[in-house]
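Slides due. Your pick:
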Amino acid sequence: MTLSIMIGTLGFMMAAYAVIANDSAQTLGTFIASNKESKWQWQWLTMATVMVATLTYGYMSGDIAHGRLDAIPQPDVFKWYHLAAPALLLGLTRFGVPVSTTILTLSVFSSTFVLEKILLKSAMGYALAAVAAYALWSLISRYFNEREPVAEENKSKWRVAQWVATCFLWHQWLAHDIANVAVFLPRGEALPLWMFVSFMGILVAGLAHLFYRRGGKIQEIVLSKSGTRFMRSATIIDFSYALILWYFKQYNNIPMSTTWVFVGLLCGRELAVYRHFKTKDGIKVVFPMLVADFMKMMLGLALSVVLVWFIS
């Protein structure tokens, strides 16, 4: 086994763990938080089915990354710096820091021009998500309080809606972020079936571990936001998040940070909820929390820039 293959294999394993434990925990966080009464095995089986279907469709179409790596050339050989990004991600994930896996991982594979496009698209995603969430929850808050219990006759309807919304979100998220792992694999027809099956098996196993741990460290970010434990709130958040990801998937094939979109969505939502349901100490809680999330996001960006600068 050559050094390049060893680095690529190790990078793939670490990137796979980081993607499942960091980014996917954000995507599935509200679903996990609001479904504590259902067995984690059923939640895992449902999302694993969506994952297998999405990845298989990509493989049959000739691109498991769904076009997200079109602007990023495959390296002839893997070098030590390709391993630096997933190793750094692994450490940050253990401390529960919601950094952008896309920016940190793909920055070492991209040219400066492509990296600028990734950052611009991610910033657009953050801004659009924040504005859209603020407008949506400003409207929602006028008609009902998300914290109020769902009427008994509507619980089953909201439960079905939440599972459907989460499956839709999970599919859209995979179409964006699976590129962060696929960048370590052969592209197109060069990817053999046995490697694809192994790749899928590792991700499905990692997903089981995520549900077993009820989201892990990153779940604390989700639970800190108002109402994310409630089924109705989780449904609206997941569907809104999925629509924004779908829009940017159609926009172009440049990768983007889904973490930035997620943080922007929760930021806009928290500000809208606070504005409508003002409490005496609310502002003292909301703004420090939002600033902390933003600074963690900027930490990932700073580390990416430093890493690229150091490599160059």
